[in-house]
Structures are given as C-alpha cells and as structure tokens.
Amino acid sequence: MPPRSHPTARQVRLGTELRRLREASGMKARDVAAFLDSTSTQMSQMEAGIAGVSTERVRRLAVHYACTDEALIDALTAIATDRTRGWWDEYRGVLPQVNLDVAEAEHHATYLREIVITHVPGLLQTPDYARAVFRYMRPELPESELTLRVEHRMRRQAVVDGGSPTPYETILHEFALRIRVADRRASLLQLRRILDRIEQGHVAVRVIPTEQNGFGGADASMMYMGGPLPLLDTGLLDAPTGTMFVDAEAELKRLRTLFRKVETASLDLTASQDFIHRLAKEL
Question: How many CA atoms lie within 13 A of 17 on its CB side?
Fold first, then answer.
C-alpha cells in the first residue's frame, strides 16, 4: 500500500496511539520494525498515519507491547478497519483538509462540548449567519468556495440534528448572541434556530451574561470530543496558525478543567433559555 500524501486526523491519531504504546513499552522503533520484518522508514510512516495498518498488525503490536487494555485495542482496531466514506469526502480537494477532519471527528464523537465567546457555534448557525461569518475570511473567498463552506457547515449539523443526535453541550457568551454578523432578520432567525434546537432536546445551551462577575475566560473557545473511551478523547482549538487537534492527556485535562470553570460562570439551562427568549423579543 503506497504512503498517504494527506492522512486524515483520524488516521494520524491511530498512528499516534501506536507510537504511545511502543514508547510505554520502552521499545525502540528500529527493534519493532525488525520484529515486523519491516523498515524504520515504514515504521515511522505507520506511526505518523502516513502508512495504513491492518487490524492483524494492530493486535500483533499490542501483544508485543504487552498492552492488556482490551477496550483500547478494540477501539484502535475499529479505527484501522474503518473504511467509511462519509459525506465530507465529497469536499476532498475543494475545501481544506481540516474542514473534512473536523466533520469526521464530530461524526465519530460520543459526545461534544463546546465553548464559544464571539460567535454562535457552527453546529447551531443558520445559513445566513454562516455566510456572513465566512465573508470576513482573509484572504476573501470567491463566491463558489463561500457557498461550499456554508453548505459543508450546514451538513455538519446532522450530528446534533439527525435521527440519532450526538449529545452536545455548548456555552455561549452574550456577545455571541448580540453581535449582528448580518442584519436584524438574520439575528432573529439565528436566535430562533438556537431555541428550536433547545426545545427539541437536541442540545444543551448555557449563556454567560455580560454582567457576570468573575469570568476571565474571554479566550476560552474550544471543542471537546468524546472518544469511544476517555483515552481517545480529542480537543479542537482555533490557533493563529489554524485549527489544531490536541490529544495529549495533559492538554485534554486542561480543556476539561476549562469547561468546568466556564460552566460555573454560566447560567443554568432554564435561565439560559429564558435569556435567549428575552434577546429574541428585544429584536
């Protein structure tokens, strides 16, 4: 099988976990390559997600590394055997790879938690709201790509609005609800979209009012995606260099702590829903 030129975030994660198992065992990559009758280059490619790995090899490596965590081994073999071509694959080559990776990660998540300070989260945006946000991207997007990005964002919402919605909790700042990224009508429709999702039971939304004391997390935006087991959770951060996936346990622990802190500064679910209703009436 030839090396992949653009491995997905999920393929990279499988390689990362295999590397972590090897490092935990204290074995060197060259020694494991010899055990597999492979090369150091091929070993490096496998652990980088560039080269595919069979389920038989995953299980063989787990035994060699003396890994006895059956749940983890099963989860890794499930990733190795996954040949799903999701709807996001339709955008391969026409949208940045990270857009596809985010959609795939959301699709496989067991639950989603998100903090958003300045914008309504993408999983709750209306088409008009999303289009207005994308119009501010730099460099400016041509109309054809702008349309594709809005379409892609709307299709992502199937994870929280489909027949079997993934549990989704989001914490929004009042600023995100008040800023008119387009016009009054678009803002009203956006608030109604959020209320509709709440009332359908698809999402849990908490609001941080502007007047809330003790909230120092203005830069706290992030998404946390539950894995098939906690060890395979994933974090998603927007950095100056672009969207970044994080999976180191120390980083994930910080994100879990951050979510709890921000949650403490927010209104409860009922009060948040009432708050959004009042904002909609003001419009």
Answer: 27
Instruction: Note whether 86 and 107 are within 8 A (CB).
Output: yes
- In sequence order, the 6+-apart residues with CB closer than 8 A to the CB of 95 are 145, 148, 149, 152
Could you read off the pLDDT of 36-50 as tens digits, one per residue? 999 999 999 999 999
Mean pLDDT of 182-203: 96
Q: For residues 49 and 13, is the Cβ–Cβ distance under 8 A?
A: yes
Report the alpha-carbon distance of residue 281 to residue 79 in Å, rounded: 47
Radius of gyration, CA atoms only, the chain: 21
Helix locations, the chain, DSSP H? 9-25, 29-35, 40-47, 55-64, 70-81, 97-108, 127-134, 143-156, 158-161, 174-178, 184-199, 249-264, 269-282
Sheet with 168-173, strands from edge to edge, namely 204-208, 168-173, 112-116, 222-225, 234-239, 242-246
Is 11 within 8 Å of 105 (Cβ atoms)? no
pLDDT digits (tens, 9 = 90+) for 240-255: 677 899 999 999 999 9
Residue type, 9: A
State residue 2's pLDDT score. Answer: 65
d(CA 32, CA 213): 55
Of residues 4 and 14, more confidence is placed in: 14
